Amino acid sequence: MAKVSKKTKAKKKDFQKVKLKLGKKLPKSQNDTTTSFKSRAIQLKDQLKQSKDEPQTHRKQNITELLGQLQHYSPTVRLAALTGLKQLLTDHPQLIRANLSTLLDRTAESFVDRDPAVRRAAAARCAMSHVDAAVRADSLAPLDVYLEFLPRTLAAASPRILRDFLELISRRRDEKDGGVAGSRRALTVDPASRLSTQRWRVSVLRRMSVFLRAYHGKEATTATERGRERGGDGGSRAMFLYGGAHAFTAESSTCKLRDVRNHKHRNAVSDAKEASLDGPMQLTAFVDTLMPLLLDLWVESKSKQSGEHLPESVLSEEAATVVEMIFEVILLLLQYIERASRDSDEISVTWLEEKYEKELTQHFFTNFPYTLTDTPVGTGKKSKVRPNRVQKVRALNVNIAVATALATILGRVERPSVEQQDLLRKAEQYAAEVVEATGTRTATDLREMLALVAKLLAARSTRNGGFVGEASEAAYKAFACCHPSSAQKQRLLEMFCNVALETPPGGSITSLDHWLSALPVTLVQLDLSQCGSVSSVLALMHRAASQQRAAFLTSLQKQLTTILGMLPGMSHEQQKTTLQLLYFAKTLRKTHFHVLVNWVRSEATDMTLVKYLLSLLNGRLAKQLTSGEVWTEPSAYISYTISLLVGGSVPKMAEQQFPTMPLLSPHVYAPEIDGGSLDGWPRQKDVVLAVHDSIRLLPNSQQVEDLYLGHVEQILSDLSL
Amino acid sequence: MSAPVEVILTSEVSGQLWNICVWDVHSGTVLGTFKGGSSAPRTLALLRGEYLISALNNKPLLHVWTIQQRDQTCQKVVCPGRVSALTTASDGSYCAAAISERIHIWEVSTGKLLTVLSRHYQTVNCLSFTDDVSHLVSGGEDNLVLVWNLNSVLCPDRSTLGEAEPKYSWSHHSLPVTDLYVGIGGARARVVTSSLDHTCKLYELASGYLLLSVTFDVPLSSVRLDPAEYSLFAGGVDGRIFQAHLFTQPVRTDRHVGKEDEEQFHVFTGHSKAVTSLSMTLDGSTLLSGSQDSTAMLWDISSTQCIRTFPHKGPVTNAVIVPTPINLVTPNAKPRLPFQTFKRQMETGESNVLKVCLSGVQESQSEDVSSLMEAVLHRVSEQVNDHEVESLEEKVATLQQEVSKLTKVNKKLYEYSVNELLK
């Protein structure tokens, strides 16, 4: 075979014929260009929309769309819509108001959503009546939120919510097993529940007490607003109307919601009567339903406790919580009853007392005061976490709550039996003990404690004054050791001064006088920057002064110079009140006037107040003159007015060498007197005019004139020496 | 000459010439004087136009004059202490006097001391009944204004109910209350008070609300509303009298009358010392003011001009305009209102015997109504004798026959209409 050169071979290779075969793929020609191309997809997540007037989420959805999506079949979309709504509403809170009704409608629907994630996301109202226990459990969380922010709105729907509360811990005892008592309810036990029944009930009760408090607050504000409206204040009327409208929208939507649910889940038994607090009849019915439940609850938890072999006055941790909650609710109910009894005669605390006194005494009051068990050491970590102090506070809370209820209920009894008296006595002793240890308490405890003391005082005031003295003595001891500017001290002072001022003067309780005489001392000790407390102490002093309390006046007399020295640091109103004290003070001496003159001369002093002071002293003098009493302080007053007229003190003038004081010539107002500066001139002129007016207005002109002349002569002779 | 519609009563501190003087509003002539002592401020009161009561300035005494016997000596009533304020009910049933911090209420017709109210802490400065005698308002040196419901205060079983409580206790003033005036309208009237703290406060008696507070730049010593309650007059301790309109716009609950807007508020200048009393004629056109500068002045309200000055020997303590008492112009008339000397102590050991005032002038509220009824019934039953009973029984029998006859006729009518007409 002929040898083909390497070169030829390479050439041939280049031009080799491509054999096409049937059934094989057509090879691509060498100059073939691929016309196909690849590209990335452009994803349009949103439509490009420009709407400047409507606020949108970062996904550019506006509120209408989001609300629409809330009804989407897919849980994911619903969840996304809720998150979107949350973002939108936090960014643009003004939207809430505009769309409130639809918003509430829609979000409320999602509380009963099947999907747990959605349910959690819906930050709102309760689905407490849902058949599914898990939904019910979750319902309390959003309720908390509502209670915190919209107590008013919720209060508008009170009857339904209250009924739901009842439904949560109890069920209606059916006719077949309940027999005669048709409206009686029984506590339910849910065996499937994860939480222990006891704890669940307590948590429901806690919510209920918060709710009742919120409702109470709402009623109070509406009442005051109504009052103010009647007072002719246009502004508050508008506010009130707005508040009403607000409540109305919320209520209407809730009602709709609830009605739907009622038809679904229940036979809609019309027991609205059972759970409303508005009229006396309804309130009675509600209390009648609730009280047995509370008692049952206690009996159950006690039976549990009795397994632990403890004496009855010692409570376990859990039992203490139960008692605390029960009494919180009872106290709130008592408040309701008290208020209702003010409006109508159909209901009163006496009614409650007659009906439940025996049971309450049997279960609670006999064992008062309670102590808590030390948590058993063996239970592990928990016992270490809980320090002893916390326990003490808890015990205190429980005891205070029980004692307050006791005082409220038994305090009204016309002729208390021996046992009842013993119980009250016990409560009083306890209160006195507690009050004495006040120094260690926190502010909130103190408030509750003082409420208790006030209740006891109210209960006792008609019978004997023994407790008043006891409590006030105990409190005074505590008061003495408090820090001067502490809130406790302030509270105690206010409380007991009010008690003292309400008892008629000349009473036998000397310890109340201590409080009044403590007032000026406290004011002196106070820091003037604490504007609120200074004002309240001043107000109390003013009241005491206008009642001419002897103890107070003596003490004021001692402190008056110091108090007057504090004048420059006070606010306008406070200065005014302090000046008014002068009207009632026993005697004004030269030292007092000396301080006053300095105060008047200071540039910072308001001219209106100077005039006020002058007219006040004038009134004081006129009273003394016309009542025929001896004019006790003429020389002090006259030297005071003269030094005001002169504008500089006598020694100072002597220094500046004005040997012949031209007191009676017009030159007396010459500016040189004030060291040569002209600045004080207009002010001094005002002062002089005011003093002149006040002297002119004094009755008995002749007498006044003689006194002044005598005094001026005296000054002149002093100067010439 | 016909009698004037209204007269002025004034009194002053010195009492040199007379205690109380009666002046004609229009001519300024003296119509009469009442002698004996000198009256204390705010203690002059008329008792149903038949008696004049006033308390002495420096003794624990009340002087009572019968209006028509003006020059004769007066009746003297001894009080437990010096009286600081005195007022009488418009129907002459009660008289209330403040003796330091206590308020004594007497029944005029029997002289019984009905009750002593002691809820003020200091001297009571002013007292006033409402015009329907349902409430008593008192203001004192302790800055308080108390409203008493007379019905509850004068309840005969007071001893079992305990101390009387005021219906309202207004503590808005911060210095002593100097004067108060109760408007027209009984229990729904408005009350205006003035105080040394430069303010006038207007209250509503029905609700107890503070309606308005007007602040002036001087301490106030007297206050008055005009009869129609359009404007408020306040007398200051510097002798000026301010007129504040109550219907100015915008409506505010707190107003200040300063120097700068004196054009809006009329000022009556003329007195040089504190204005102690203000009073108005019924038509609301003239104002009377009494002052410590020993004059009383009569002002024309619309022009704020002084029309007439009544000079006195000492500071004026009372100056009031009252409708002319009829007995003043008919000298022979006798007072119809029985007047007994006021007792100094409350009666203890109530006797069951009731004194019924048959002239019908006096209707005492303190007496037990049920036993009164019994007495009346008893008297009625005595009068009806047996003969009358018989005749009455006959009458009843005939009347019963009549009734049965009428029923029959009615039944027939009914049957006829059912059967015949409605067929």
Describe this structure in words.
The complex is a heterodimer of chains A (721) and B (423). Chain A is mainly alpha-helical. Chain A has helices at 6-15, 63-69, 75-91, 94-98, 100-111, 116-121, 133-149, 151-156, 158-169, 175-178, 197-230, 234-265, 280-306, 317-343, 349-363, 381-385, 388-410, 418-436, 443-460, 466-481, 487-502, 510-525, 531-546, 550-565, 572-584, 590-601, 607-626, 634-646, 650-655, 681-696, 701-720; strands at residues 170-172, 185-187, 314-315, 371-372. Chain A has a two-stranded antiparallel ribbon. A two-stranded parallel ribbon of chain A has the order 3-4. Chain B is mostly beta strands. In chain B, the strands form seven sheets. In chain B, strands 16-17-18-19-23 form a five-stranded mixed β-sheet, with no helix packed on it. In chain B, a hairpin with a 5-residue loop joins strand 20 (220-225) and strand 21. The longest helix of chain B is centred in the C-terminal third of the chain and has 36 residues, at 386-421. Chain B is globular, with a radius of gyration of 28 Å. Chains A and B meet through helix 23, helix 25 and helix 27 of A and loops of B.
Short description:
Chain A is mainly alpha-helical and 721 residues long. Chain A is built from 31 helices and 4 strands. Chain A is flat.
Q: What is the approximate shape of chain A?
A: flat
The figure for the number of domains of chain B is 1
What is the helix fraction of residues of chain B, given as a range? 10-25%
- Strand ordering within the main sheet of chain B: 16-17-18-19-23
Look at the structure and give the mean pLDDT of chain B.
Answer: 84
Rg of chain B (C-alpha, Å) = 28 Å
Query: Which ranges of chain B are low-confidence, i.e. pLDDT below 50, for 5 or more consecutive residues?
Result: 359-366
